[in-house]
Structures are given as C-alpha cells and as structure tokens.
Amino acid sequence: MSGKPQAPAIEGWYTMEAETRLIGSCCKSCGTYFFPKQSHYCKNPDCESTDFDEVELSRTGHVWSYTNASYQPPAPFVAPDPFEPYAIAAVQLEKEQMVVLGQVADGFSVDDLKVGMPMELVLEPLHETEDDVKVTWKWRPLSH
C-alpha cells in the first residue's frame, strides 16, 4: 500500500497504536465486559445496570475455536479482488475471559491454528481510499 496515512476501518472499536487493543466496556455494577462497547443496558440477565466504563481489552488470548471463511462477505466489508478464503478465530481474551471473533492475520490459514494456541491482536491494512489506508484488527499467532 502507499504512504498515505492510516485510519481505522471502524472508528472507536480499537486503538491505532503499535500494540493495538480493542475498546470495550465494563459494567460498573456486575463487572461484565462487552465488545463492541455497550452503553445502554447490561446484557447480563442478572444485572439491571446502565452504567459502564470504557476499557481497553486484553490484546492477547487463546484460540477457543476457528474456521475457514470461504465466502465473500457483504458490503460494507471491502474484500480483496479476486476474493480468497481466509481464517476466522474465536479468541478468549486473557484477562476478561470473553470470546471475541475476528479475522486471522494475512499469511495464516486454518492449518496454522490449534485450539488453545496463544494469539495477539495486530493491525493490518484492509483497503485504500483516495485519502488514506483503512486498517483493521486481526488475530495473529503469538509465536510470530
């Protein structure tokens, strides 16, 4: 990609730092974590709170499950042309113990993944616009 500035593909979902983190929320009453951020009501059925803190979530975790996406996702996702299948991993975050589903970093397939393996969050280019390069977060095996 070009020397254009980087911008988030989805504003407010992750930091743009080298060691990126997902931005979630934590219920002030019961301590339940959410991603993406929750701000209207706690989805924990045992809690009636509407008060949340915005938090940066763990950037590491372990593969809970994974699969191969052999279909081109619909808009607004911008898929490479021609479309190539990619891996998706459900990663249980280290501290929060919640599972977050996301695309696996370029160069890795389902053949490279195993349940329980450590993963880290990274930023990768998604597509280029006239003004900038849109980047998104992905999961990458921690040993790389």
Task: Write the SSE topology.
Blueprint: E1 6-8, E2 23-27, E3 33-34, E4 52-56, E5 60-69, E6 86-93, E7 99-103, E8 118-128, E9 133-141
Parallel strand pairs: 1-9
Antiparallel strand pairs: 2-3, 2-4, 5-6, 5-8, 6-7, 8-9
**Widest beta sheet: strand line-up:** 1-9-8-5-6-7
Shape label: globular
**On the 0-100 scale, what is the average pLDDT?**
93
Number of helical stretches of at least 4 residues: 0
What about the largest sheet? 6 strands, mixed
Order of helices and strands: EEEEEEEEE
Helix content: under 10%
Spans of at least 5 consecutive residues whose pLDDT stays below 50 are none
Terminus-to-terminus distance:
22 Å
Question: What is the percentage of strand-forming residues?
Answer: 35-45%
